[in-house]
Amino acid sequence: MPLRVIYRMAVERDVVKISPVDRVVLPRVVRNRQSEMMKPADIQRLILALPSTVRAIYAVAAYAGLRRGEIRGLRWKNVNLAERFIRVEAAWDDEEGEITPKSAAGYRRVPIIEPLRAELIALRSRVDELGLDWSNPDALVFPSSTSSSRPFTSTNVRRQANAAWAAQGVSGFKLHEGRHFAASAMIAAGASIKDVQTALGHADSSVTLDVYGHLMSGALDDLRERMDQQFAS
Fold first, then answer.
1. Which CATH homologous superfamily contains domain 33-176?
2. Are the C-beta atoms of 149 and 4 separated by less than 8 Å?
3. Which of 204, 181, 201, 223 minimizes the C-alpha distance to 31?
4. Which of 75, 110, 147, 211 is the most exposed place for a label (fewest CB within 10 A)?
5. Handedness of CA 156, 51, 151, 63 (dihedral sign)
């Protein structure tokens, strides 16, 4: 995608005559069928089965669609429970620490739906009980258990989640699978590809279409019915 943009600009400015990447065929995107098949009630049950130490982390992935690095880099100043949105401004990389989004599309506001709002409120109560200060705007929402200046370790969180689900005899989901579920839930609720692109922080709508375009058929059926009603005599 970056090369395509660069060469498109180069062609427009007569730096080159043709773009060598126009005819490049990218590998087919492997779709995550499990997350697409899960219903909202299924996701809610899986999240409620988790211990309080990791529940809100998986809730942010499944209800807001943030990337794992964005969840790790989330700070309380970017969580607005009153107006119900998360402002994504950073992510966390194990080698570089806090990093900015890779594209302008990465900077975005993501709505907080009610189940996520309830989990974040519960998290604040737990933070109070632990004697931590969530009122500090620069505090990480999900710090490591050993250092408040660093985010949670993905392997530890996954281990806790898998143990909880195994104890209940159910199959859970990975954080990235939660992001896929969030996208499919948005589309099922009537969101357009452009809406989903914005919420997920995709730099180009073609990426969103490649991954989630096949889910639009149901949304288009709903659109047809709504338009039928508009033109009904």
1. Intergrase catalytic core (1.10.443.10)
2. no
3. 181
4. 147
5. positive
Q: Which residues pair with 148 in a beta bridge?
A: none
The Cα–Cα gap between 155 and 153 comes to 6
Which tokens go with 217?
């058929």
Handedness of CA 178, 179, 183, 186 (dihedral sign): positive
What's the rounded Cα separation, in Å, for the pair 34 and 26? 23
Residue in the block written with tokens 């900077």: 107
At residue 173, φ and ψ (nearest 5 deg) are -150, 155
Q: Tokens 């401004």 identify what position?
A: 89
pLDDT by 10s per residue, the chain, length 233: 788 889 888 988 889 988 998 888 766 555 555 555 678 899 999 999 999 999 999 999 999 999 999 999 999 999 999 999 999 999 999 999 999 998 899 999 999 999 999 999 999 999 888 777 788 999 999 999 888 899 999 999 999 999 999 999 999 999 999 999 998 888 888 888 888 899 999 888 777 777 776 666 666 566 667 667 767 75
The token duo for 167 is 């104890």
Looking up tokens 């058929």 gives 217
In whole angstroms, how large is the CA radius of gyration of the chain?
20
Closest CA to 180 of 204, 200, 206: 200
* pTM for the whole structure: 0.78
β-bridge mates for residue 91, sequence order: 99
Distance of CA 156 to the CA centre of its chain: 20
- Name which of 29, 55, 205 is nearest 116 in CA terms: 55
DSSP structure class, residue 105: G
